[in-house]
Amino acid sequence: MLGRKERDQLELYMCGSLRDLVPDDHILVKVDRVLDLSWLHE
């Protein structure tokens, strides 16, 4: 039913940053270092 929470539904909460989970040699970390997205608004 819409709006009702199932009893066995798992709630997930994560403390910290997703960046902490990504290794420093990952391709997206390397791209982030050289790509300037400061013009992009959130």
Structure description:
- With 42 residues, this protein is mainly alpha-helical.
- 19% of the residues lie in helices and 0% in strands.
- It has one helix and no strands.
- It is elongated, with a radius of gyration of 18 Å.
Draw up the topology in text.
Elements: H1 27-34
In short:
This protein has 42 residues and is an all-alpha fold. It has one helix spanning 27-34.
Based on the model shown, name its key terms.
42 residues, Transposase mutator type, mainly alpha
Number of strands: 0
Query: Mean pLDDT across all residues, rounded?
Result: 84
Distance linking N and C termini = 34 Å
Number of helices: 1
The unreliable regions are: none
* Strand proportion: under 5%
